[in-house]
# Entry
Amino acid sequence: MTSFLPGAAAAQRAPAEVQAVVAAEPVNLTELRREAEKAAKDLEDATKALEQRRTQIRTSEKELSVKLRELQVAERAFAQVRQPLSDLVGFLYQQPIGGDVAGFLSGDSGADTLRAMAGVTQLVAERDLILEDSSRLQVERERLAGEAQELRAGNLLAEAQMGAEIETLRTRSQKIVQSLTKALVKLGVKINKDGRPAAGCDPTRATSMDEFPNGLIPQAYLCPLQQRGNQLRGDAALAFISLNESYKRQFGRPMCVTDSYRSLAEQQSVYYTRPGLAAVPGRSNHGLGLAVDLCGGVERFRSAEFNWLETNGKKFGWIHPKWAYVSPFEPWHWEYDPKIGSLL
# Structure
């Protein structure tokens, strides 16, 4: 099958390589995230290419239709001229021309006879020209009709091939996300009642969350953490889970989380109950699913836990923002930086 899409080569790779990563290092969510994002990008590019191809098809077919209509108009115009002329020539052939044939052949024919004969000759010549032009029009019409038929057949084939490649890319993307989901379940991420992890664990949906106002992200777009009752947007959650695994290896226990994503109502509650220690409702990074408040030692400035997180957090895209060092001073507040995370 001819490849029409930029992601076609990638589509041929089965997600076995991704599953191998999971088997070799179950907590390597960064590699899985890269694969999922790449598969989603390939699918997006392929879909755009298909839409562009369809636009080109529509444009070319319109151009052909215009040409065919112009030919039909020309044919009708020629028919209007051709028919009276043809009738006149036929009539003249059936009528005797002034003077007899013998006189004409002997050179004794009159001027009227000669003019009539010349007129007939001119009419016949003009009729022949019109018929010749009409024949050319017919040939051109048949050529364009054949071209249109060939174009449509080629477009249908190309679109079918592109559609098949897109379906392959979509299947691959889904399998990678499934592999990612299995890895999360193994790491203790709770699943929904229907037996599936939250849809927000798909990191490819993270950017689409920008469509939702701060604090109004639907539950389906949020990914649960290992810490019960806490959740973040997909890319931040994956990075935090990886960070948590590294933290566990260092301290022998998971990170302690007191707060993560906050709905708008929760932001309002915190703002009024803890004045000066919470952002204005609708402006908090907690409402974007990109921030956590930590405990278990991290909340104590310059503790071993704080220092370790300060040193290692960026490896997973997590930082302690500059403002949290001074005003207001919040050693427990940590944020995920998508720009840093995308480079990992």
About this structure: Residues 73 and 79 are 10 Å apart (CA to CA). Strands lie at 222-224, 231-233, 256-259, 291-295, 318-319, 333-336. The first strand starts at residue 222 and ends at 224. The domain at 8-186 is CATH 1.10.287.1490 (Helix Hairpins).
